[in-house]
Amino acid sequence: MARAVRFYETGGPEVMKWEAAEVGEPGPGEVRITHHAVGLNFADTYFRTGYYPSPMPAGMGVEGAGVITAVGAGLDGFHPGDRVTYTGSPLGAYSTERVMPASHLIALPDTIEFDTAAAMTMRGLTTAYLLRRIWPLSAGDTVLLHAAAGGVGLIFTQWARLLGIKVIGTVSSQRKAQVAREHGCDDVIVYTEEDVAQRVRELTAGEGVPVVFDSIGQSTVPTSLDCLSRRGLLVCFGTASGPIPPIDAFSLAAKGSLYVTRPALADYIADPAERAELAAELFGHVAAGDITIDINQRYSLDDAVTAHRDLEAGTSVGSSVFTC
């Protein structure tokens, strides 16, 4: 019988339960998929804690890769035996099997392993829209990226180098600084040892950077604003440290007519054609070896509690996956 992680109340990692699950047959527009690997993302903790509301009881996880075992009536484009990956709602990726809407699926090339796909679909597509859709970045530009040794960070720095974009990254330790440098980060600031805004000004001849990519949120947004050049953009794409604090609109003018955006991946992959374009570019870079996906933490699905504790402790480097 299939098994899945569910939670019946919000709270700490201990609220997740590993239990038997009835899968059933796919209806119109749906497929049944057997997972080979499942992604572990910080966003998963937002659902578990209630920061992202969800009806109870709920499954866990929004990213997985595997093989289609059945398709619903009238569904075109996917067939039993197809290799696929996905990211997006509804919850339920932490499972051995599931039925889900086919609209979220992306065909997975044979050149990419299942665990690689589960480690990169959300992170890679996030990087794709950050670098290719948010701001007209050009070769020679310099940007600031927080969490440069994280799952998105390591993909972002490699992709930025391919585009000729210089990255100043922030990390919490010298160990993570070394990892970030190895993956293409041009300058690394250990924020526990240096003043980030001051160091950014030193590295940019006092100008600051045109764009800051901030996935940390509460603890970093004020500093991020101080790192921007005139008419620069703060991209708040995550809240690992907590909700983004209120931003006074007048302060944006006082700091140089700054912009702030809070994008969501769902709005950049909602259009199937745009999603296919971003995925093709990502898969192409990975298949060619131009971007490597570091999976540094692997867990079994029945160890989801430990995985979430490690994730929230900030000890993870690169990507994490569950193997099925």
Summary keywords:
324 residues, Quinone Oxidoreductase, Chain A, domain 1, Rossmann fold, 2 domains, seven-stranded mixed sheet, six-stranded parallel sheet, 9 helices, 29% helix
What does this structure look like?
The chain has helices at residues 42-49, 114-132, 151-162, 174-182, 196-203, 221-226, 249-254, 272-287, 304-313, and strands at 3-7, 16-20, 30-40, 58-59, 63-71, 83-87, 97-101, 105-107, 142-145, 166-171, 187-190, 209-214, 228-236, 259-261, 295-300, 319-323. The protein is built from 9 helices and 16 strands. The strands form 3 sheets. Strands 3, 5, 6, 7, 8, 15 and 16 form a 7-stranded mixed beta sheet that branches. Strands 11-10-9-12-13-14 form a 6-stranded parallel beta sheet, with helices on both faces. It is 29% helix and 27% strand. The two termini are 14 Å apart. Helix 2 (114-132) crosses helix 8. It has 2 domains: 3-122 and 272-323, Medium-chain alcohol dehydrogenases, catalytic domain (Quinone Oxidoreductase, Chain A, domain 1); 135-262, 3-Layer(aba) Sandwich (Rossmann fold), CATH 3.40.50.720. The model has no long low-confidence stretch (mean pLDDT 94). By secondary structure, the chain is of the alpha/beta class. GO terms for molecular function: mRNA 3'-UTR AU-rich region binding; NADPH binding; quinone reductase (NADPH) activity; zinc ion binding. Residues 11-322 form the Enoyl reductase (ER) domain. One of its GO terms (cellular component) is cytosol. This is Quinone oxidoreductase. Pfam families: ADH_N, ADH_zinc_N.
